[in-house]
Every structure is written in structure tokens, then in C-alpha cells.
Amino acid sequence: MKLTITGYSTALFSTWYFIEELGLLFDCGDGASSGLLQKARKVKHVFISHADRDHLTGLLQFNQLNARQGFPKIYFPRDSNSFPFLKEFSTHFDPHVSGAEWIKMEEGNSFQIKKNIFVEPFRNEHVPVGKELVKSLSFHVFETKRKLKEEYLHLSGKEIAALRNELGEESITIQLRKNILSYSGDTPIENDGRWNGTKILIHEATFLRKGDVDLDDRRQGKHSYLEEVIEMVSKTKVEQLILGHFSSRYSPAEIDEAIDFFCKKFGLEIPVFRILPGEIVRDILH
Fold this sequence. Notes:
globular
């Protein structure tokens, strides 16, 4: 499946990613509506990774422009109390947005957003809370299809149709899942293989090197740095990598030089794309 991904991601200021073919928006930072203009109307599902303002301050404007009965569906971490307040404020300020749906989510959920397309959230450690709380999430997007079981492959089309009527589709087929896209949100690196097998990984890289991060500052320590991201991906089966959420302290030249250096250092040879601070990138992969 070809995916057209448009995004903006600058640490502290705003992050959002629009996947056009899926009607899907990951995070909704400031400027999402003005960046997408009429294409914002295509968004039916908005998944917010966490309640930091740079990931949700565009939500009120987006909702008041695009809300209609049943849409958008706005998904948020179960224990992030900011979102019920946002919903209440939004419906009082713009009563016409009451048709939008606000949906709590947690690890283990699976949300169908199109035929055969599912979004599944899972926990990350950006927000340091107890394991019983859900305040920050990453996401996988899966495409599913059903394949005829091996024992029926020799049958004719007529025989398969008869079996389908007799036993049902699920009895004669197996479900295959393909991880077509993953989005990290804000997160420290997790070397647990969670990205293994994804075709496209969108990952934050707030800082370039370990020395740029004050490890005693818990706020900074909850993010990733480029060196570690490239090293992790080099050991993981990922087909394409999109990097964003760079700090605006870095110039474009510094970012590009660092990407080139670390890709060579760790032998990463897959296509790597980046969103520079302050820039909207349209159709990132092309």
C-alpha cells in the first residue's frame, strides 16, 4: 500500500503526521489545520500519543473545522485527564462539535479505521508513571488479509465456495497481519524489538548525541537522541525510517551531517527521511 505522509515535527512547538490514504492523524499540534487546509477534512481518526501541549494544541481548531456526527474520532491515553476537560471545553465553546467522539485507549486495544486496517497502541515511558496508569502511547498500524489454509489450496474455485458457505470464511482461512506503519510518539529508546517488521517507522530524535542530553533532567531524559535511534534501527527489521521532533537548537546542516555520520557508523542502509525544525514536509516518502 502506497502511503502519502505529510508532517510537521519540531520539539517543544508542534508535532503532527497525516497519512492521507488512511484518513489518519497522529498527534495534532499547533498548525495542523492550516498545514493541511481542505485535506484536513479527510481525517476521520486522530490518535494523540500524550498530553504535552506541542502534540495537542491544534486539536480545538481542527475539531471546530471538521467535526460532524461520529467524526473525527479522537483517541487519547486512558489516564490523561486533560482530554475530558478539552472535550467539555470544546463542546461548550463550539457546540456544533458535539458529534466528535472522544475515545479512551490503552495497550491491548485494537481500533479498526478502515476495512482491514487496524491501529494498536502500546505503552512507552515518555511519561514516568506507575505501570497501572496509561499516559503515553506509541502505535502500530496493521493491514490484515485472509489466506486460504494450505489443506484447501488444491481445491477448485467451486469447491472453495461451497466450503465457505458450509464452514464460514474464518474456518477455511488464516489471517495474515502486516505492520505497514509505526509511530513512536515521544519516547526514550526501547531495545525490546517493538519496531521489528514494520515497513515504515516514524521515530522522534529530539537530540543528536548523548552529550546533548542532561541525564539528570528527567524532562530531557524521556526523549530519544539520534545516535541511539540509528543504532537501534540498524539492529531491527525496518524498511524505511522517518525522523522528526528535532530540537530547534540544531541547524539543518548539523542534523543532516549527524544522520549521515551515524548511518555510516552503524551501517544503516535503508532509506532515511527527516523533518527539519520549522518545516512542513509533504509526501515525505516521495
